[in-house]
Design a protein that fits this description.
- There is one protein chain.
- About 30% of the residues lie in helices and about 30% in strands.
- It is built from ten helices and 14 strands.
- The strands form three sheets. A six-stranded mixed sheet has the order 6-7-8-3-9-10, sandwiched between helices.
- The chain is elongated.
- InterPro entries: AAA+_ATPase (IPR003593), ABC_transporter-like_ATP-bd (IPR003439), ABC_transporter-like_CS (IPR017871), ABC_transporter_ATP-binding (IPR050763), P-loop_NTPase (IPR027417).
- Pfam families: ABC_tran (PF00005).
Length: about 300
């Protein structure tokens, strides 16, 4: 048994026609974490998830889920993972409770061990248990998809763009539930276009671009890789021209406010402020903008496009 919830090694996928969706991708998802899988549209994220789900055949490489190789032990591997797809997929003529009961039956969960009502309660759909699924709102349908992925109590849950097109309140409800599941021992893999969500939720993040892995680090370390910082300096008199210094990457002046961009690997904030005072300005106020995941994401994907 591996300690990884998901272990991927040398995974490649080339579709008929020659499109290479995954190119020798290797990484592990540690057990017990919330793991972010990020990348631009068409980067290969959905192909990777579909390989884990058994919906797409890989070209080469290996993948295992909870220690079970997806080729050698496909039934065990599938039983260890629940997947919430981007697309909302279920029969609109079944009620939520029927949907969960049927899904549990497909996974061979004995009636005595089914948790259908408990799951509907957890995703705030208990009062809709007997409503036709087609009458549910988009947000309710998405919550039902999460419950559906959990009927067989998998140790790994994959959420593929779960908050795409949903309102802020529902997004917050979903994330609260994800944190609750994770606290209960479920390993969560999350793909999202909302980078601030990934930054707040994920313990570790992997970034894929053009089918290749371009980063795989703890979130804090990844954010720490952003080299550009911005400092906003308010000075004691109006600025006729913006001061210049070799440690400034970029500088903008408006009224009495200077917005200075500098690189952490070239200078520090003290040197930037000293350059301002050398020009005879008194400093009244200073604020800084820390780099975030979006800065890192853009720099890494641009670099891998080159």
């Amino acid at each position: 048994m591996t300690d990884a919830a998901i272990a991927i090694s040398g995974l490649s996928k080339t579709y008929a026609g020659g499109k290479r969706a995954l190119d020798d991708v290797s990484f592990d998802v540690p057990r017990g974490q919330i793991f972010g899988l990020l990348g631009p549209n068409g980067a290969g994220k959905s192909t990777l998830i579909n390989i884990l789900a058994g919906l797409v055949n890989k070209t080469s490489g290996t993948a295992s889920i909870w220690g079970f190789d997806i080729d050698a032990h496909p039934r065990n591997a599938k039983a260890a993972i629940g997947i919430v797809n981007q697309e909302i997929l279920f029969d609109p003529f079944f009620t939520p409770i029927e949907t969960l009961e049927i899904q549990a039956g497909l996974y061979g969960v004995p009636k005595a061990k089914r948790r259908s009502l408990e799951l509907l309660r957890a995703v705030h759909l208990e009062d809709k248990a007997n409503a036709y699924a087609r009458t549910l709102s988009g947000g309710m349908k998405r919550r039902l998809m999460v419950a559906k992925a959990l009927v067989h109590t998998p140790p790994v849950l994959v959420l593929d763009e779960p908050t795409a097109g949903v309102d802020i309140e529902l997004r917050q409800q979903l994330w609260a539930y994800v944190r609750e599941l994770n606290a209960g021992g479920v390993t969560v893999v999350l793909t999202t276009h909302y980078l601030e969500e990934a930054e707040q939720l994920c313990d570790r993040i992997a970034i894929i671009n053009h089918g290749r892995l371009v980063a795989n680090e703890p979130t804090r370390e990844l954010v720490g890789r952003a080299q550009e910082k911005v400092v906003e300096v308010t000075v004691d008199r109006d600025l006729s021209t913006a001061p210049a210094a070799s440690c400034f990457e970029k500088v903008e002046a408006a009224g009495r406010v200077l917005t200075i961009t500098y690189r952490k690997d070239v200078a520090n904030a003290g040197e930037v402020l000293a350059a301002v005072t050398r020009d005879g300005y008194g400093i009244v106020d200073v604020s800084t903008k820390e780099p975030d995941l979006e800065d890192v994401f853009l720099s890494l994907t641009r670099a891998s496009n080159g």
